[in-house]
Amino acid sequence: MTDPDTNVIFLDVDNTLLDNDRIEADLDGHLERELGADCRRQYWEIFEALRAELGYADYLGAVQRYRERDLNDRRLLRLAEFLLDYPFAQRLYPAALEVIRHLDQQGQTVILSDGDAVFQPRKIQRSGLWDAVSGRVLIYIHKEQMLDAIVQTFPAHHYIIIEDKPRILQAMKDVLGDRLTTVFVRQGHYAKEPNQTAYRPADLAIECIGDLLTHDIPSLHTRARTHPEIARLS
User: Fold this and answer.
1) How far apart are CA 67 and CA 80, in angstroms?
2) Mean pLDDT of 152-177
3) pTM listed for this prediction
């Protein structure tokens, strides 16, 4: 539980603190080398079908479902090992941990991520992010739909969300209004999709997570409210 007078700073993981696009590229290369182009294609087809079905990326679930096609292919038994033992700490964006330490001096940092209950915690732990926020980690299937539970767990005077998906930023802003300051990080493929202009601009937009080292988080909501055009161009 937090002091209600404290600012709570929510940090997304994939493509915000951690280069998940690079992780997927490494997995893609591993599939190609170990299983061949056809198997690689089938894995990603299963992966996308599962994401549409479940609402989140389920890398291990895709391994299990793919294995059902050929239970005798022993190579598939090593695929989960590649994912679970992946060196996630090497895929942190530059200054990611420094940013968390910087933000800790201005509020209480909390990892707020979407994902499954096995692989996503593993990724957060092995990357060093779990310890960086002293275990303050929340993982949901659709975090923007869990705001009641989130604010009950971490009550605060004001919230900041740092995220690479404008859709989620807008959905959370629609619920929390002026209690929430939104920070859009233009990293990863979601941030670069052309349809992002369909969403309202965030209170602050930055090019990379390291840019937050030069920002005073507690003043962001005041600055965004009084000078929104300045915040969005920062």
Assistant:
1) 11
2) 95
3) 0.89
